[in-house]
Amino acid sequence: MINVPKGTKDMLPADSHKWQAVEAAAKKITALYNVKQIRTPVFESADLFLRSIGDSTDIVNKEMYIFEDKGGRKMALRPEGTAGVVRSVIENNLCETLPQKLFYIESLYRYEQPQAGRYREHHQFGAEFYGSPLPEFEIELLSMASDFLREIGFSDLRLRINSIGCEKCRAEFNKALREFLKSVSDDICDDCKRRADVNPLRTLDCKNPSCQKIYSKAPKISDYLCDDCKSHHAAVIKGLSDLGIEYYEDESLVRGLDYYTRTVFELCDGDLAVLGGGRYDNLCQQLGGKPTPCVGFGCGIERLIAAAETRGIEFNRNIPTVYVAAQCDGARSECVRLVKALRDAGISAESDLMGKSLKAQFKYADRQAFAFVATVGESELQSGKVPVKRMSDGHTQELALNDFVNGIKNLIS
Ligand code: HAM
Predict the structure, then answer these.
(1) Is 297 close to ligand 1, i.e. is its CB under 6 Å away?
(2) pLDDT single digits (tens) 200-251
(3) Closest Cα to atom 14 of ligand 1
(4) Ligand 1 contact via 122 beta carbon (within 6 Å)
């Protein structure tokens, strides 16, 4: 017996309506914001991720699925969506008209220690906007993220936001932070000791409570932001307030990918981020494109569904409409004709494909939650009338065979 790989999950039919509801919400809201879909390959040259996410990050260092293809090329399964989209935007000249607003729904691969909300394969609804250095860009993106979460049914996920400055002010801040980390190096965890030199900013995000206590005395990024970064951040915050989007500022928020500049944000359910992103103004140029300011987010679909379920948020189910049951073999071809007519009219319908008895067909229709069951037998074929049972209360009505589709339309309207 071969099992599903560790850290991955099958999406089973009983859960498919949840995934479909999330994707429908993503497609509805992106259409409202005039955001177009993009799909990129599940694997890319490993270099793309080394050069974008950063070679000091956990994702690149510990978690990438890297393999050599038969042509000897070093490839990687995408651990995140942004880099592949930037690659495609540059390669296909998608920034000739700006802004360019894109979204994706895709699977991602990180070799993590599997635990609740942390998988080796996960899925994201992500959005990437290209072209504007203005705070309006963050506000548009966060407004879309907030509408998406409201469409699913969330009302309590609060936005955590911070500015990590530009290269200029961050360099000053990193210098001060490195000095501080040196002074407390005996008391911080091994992970933080390692990060202190290569990526000091990431220490601030450490989940270890004793490190967090120490970092309450660390230099604050807000004291190092240059005037431009400060006014940009203030404008983002004001824009969110103007739209009634609740947020709280959190200087410990730094994110686990290296490409961010200025704004970073997350929406969390307890300790787990459900949605995260920020501005990344240097990445296009870093990957060989024209300098192009960008903002984006990724929303983890597994975590989103789990967070919705703990809140009792219901996902719409697609309830099949009409099951046409055959009472005898002589009625089967009429059942197929009726089902075809219903489907042509846009009404979901099914008839028996298994040679089941009438009783077993009713049992199947009930289990599948069909709204109506029509029964066709010899006498119905002769009289030209079929009984249609409403499954919710058993109410039965006769419909004319020669006007069956209209009869059903009247029943469901
Ligand atoms: P990220 O924070 O690494 O950002 O991932 C975004 C979201 O994906 C997380 O908030 C979380 O919900 C989900 N996620 C990440 N890793 C896992 C995992 N192992 N298992 C389950 N869910 C997970 C990015 O990926 C950036 N590309 C976001 C972005 C887009 N920034 C700018 N544009």
Answers:
(1) yes
(2) 998 988 888 999 999 999 999 999 999 999 999 999 999 999 999 999 999 9
(3) 300
(4) yes
Nearest CA to ligand 1 atom 26: 298
Interval 342-375: pLDDT, tens: 999 999 999 999 999 999 999 999 999 999 999 9
275 C-alpha to ligand 1 centroid (Å): 7
- Name the residue among 53, 19, 261, 266 with its Cα closest to residue 142: 266
- For the record, the structure tokens of 82 come out as 């942004």
Provide the whole-model pTM. 0.94
Residue nearest to atom 13 of ligand 1 (CA): 300
Candidates 108, 113, 301: which one to mutate for ligand 1, based on the most atoms within 8 Å of Cβ? 108
CA distance 176 to 334: 80
**What residues pair up with 43 in beta bridges, in sequence order?**
77
Three state DSSP letters for the chain: CCCCCCCCCCCCHHHHHHHHHHHHHHHHHHHHCCCEECCCCCEEEHHHHHHHCCCCCHHHHHCCCEEECCCCCEEEECCCCHHHHHHHHHHCCCCCCCCEEEEEEEEEECCCCCECCECCEEEEEEEEEECCCCHHHHHHHHHHHHHHHHHHCCCCCCEEEEECCCHHHHHHHHHHHHHHHHHCCCCCCHHHHHHHHHCHHHHHHCCCHHHHHHHCCCCCHHHCCCHHHHHHHHHHHHHHHHCCCCEEECCCCCCCCCCCCCEEEEEEECCEEEEEEEECCCHHHHCCCCCCCEEEEEEEHHHHHHHHHHCCCCCCCCCCCEEEEECCHHHHHHHHHHHHHHHHCCCCEEECCCCCCHHHHHHHHHHCCCCEEEEECHHHHHHCEEEEEECCCCCEEEEEHHHHHHHHHHHHC
Q: Which atom of ligand 1 is nearest to the CA of 59?
A: 3
Interval between CA 197 and ligand 1 midpoint (Å)? 25
Contact 84 CB / ligand 1 (< 6 Å): no
* CB of 275 shorter than 6 A to ligand 1: yes
